[in-house]
Amino acid sequence: MNVLIWNCRGAIKPLFRKTVMDLVDWHNPIVMVITETRLSGVRADEIIESLPFDGAVVTDTIGFAGGIWLLWRSDLVQVEALASTEQEIHAIVRVRSQNFNWLINAIYASPRFEERCILWENLKMLADIHDLPWALMGDFNEVLTEEEKSGGNHISQRRVRAIQECMDTCYMIDLGFSGPKFTWTNKRGLDDLIQCRLDRCWANPAWKAFFVEANVTHLARVNSDHCPLLLNLKPVESEHQNRPFRFQSIWLSHSDFPNIVRDAWEGQGVRLADATSDFVNKAKIWNREVFGNVFAKKKRIMARLGGIQKALANRPCNFLLNLQNQLSDEYNNILQLEEELWVMKARTNWIINGERNTSFFHLSTMVRRSKNRITCIQNVHGEL
After folding, report:
1. What's the pLDDT band for 354 if we cut at 50, 70, 90?
2. Domain 2-232 annotated CATH 3.40.190.10
3. Could you point out which of 47, 90, 91, 171 has its C-alpha 20 to 30 Å from the C-alpha of 338?
């Protein structure tokens, strides 16, 4: 069971939906917290409806700043919203497969210290009125130690004391992390580069006692100046599944592919079964070694970005900054190639030139798969 947390720096951006779709596809979250959406009202509702979640709580923005979306899959988890402000959403979470309730706080702390102090006071009051297992997650817009910041001015001890007092009053434990050290960057050159750990997950002892193996991973940063956080509530070993061979129409765009077909049929005469088997074997090898799997390429790029950003946290240099920008461009360029693949998978044969419809095709495929999946059995009384 996973929870994703991401400061997207604007949900109106063209690549926002596709980035969320990729994160959901790779990490399969039951809950997702998206902060600094800079959207509310009807426009926010329209975008949320295009995402693979059917439950949502949204906070209003302050002008064109702020905004929090708490999203969830209602088939896996039940969420009851309790209260919200511009900086927080309080809700009760119950995983349907477990008899266990816990309190979640989705956080987007204001960049202004005076307003953050209001948030810290709200959390301390909340701690006094409940004894539930409790987890805080999101963008706290504050660092706690000098080690959590690189570049720029020294940290303010007054601001550190304010958040630390809040966490102590709420009996919070930092869940730690793996991956790149910093979650935010100002994306400037080496001389003016600033990096900080602003996004984090905290939990009280009761929550940690239930999710003993929970861990946090800082994922590679792309299409935002913040990296997403993956909160894995109960890590499990992934199972390898053998998938049937499928012809990909996107292969036709590669100049070498006709040679694969010709080589498979040469010398086979009318033996269709032998030619087909030979083609399948050659196509698998060629796809892996020459053309490359689109999704695997994206994952490799994200893995390299994560490694580069981890290195940048320890020893920034112009070479790594340039390589990071190059890989970010490669990631976005591969989205265009992926679009044709989703057209085929969605069994849709039209596409509007110049407009990115990948999210539509992706969602069409996910809806079809969901309809074909048996998740439970219903008796004659309508009970699941």
Report:
1. very low
2. no
3. 47
